[in-house]
Amino acid sequence: MNNAVQPIKILEEKIIVLLNKLKENHLDLVKFKDLQTSLVQENKILKDKILKLEDDNKSLKVANNLLGSNEGKSQTKTKINNLIKEVDYCIQKLSEMN
After folding, report:
1. Does residue 90 lie in a domain region?
2. Burial of 13 (0-12, 13-18, 19+ CB in 10 A)
């Protein structure tokens, strides 16, 4: 009878080892899911910062061009022309209201 018990004990020990590994894997999975969530949030924040910095960069280029730089003059002229069109449109709408 002792011979039959030995394989069962070995099987039980292997099952215990596997259950412990399963528990560790589950804990790792939860940890990695939390890490992924935080990384996704950080990635979104960094993308937003990049977009803001790109906008700031464009604004600085326009300001630099207004101060006399030759780089991007056509871009600056286009932006100014668009602003003038918007102001003219607003003036036109205000005139129609009176």
Report:
1. no
2. exposed
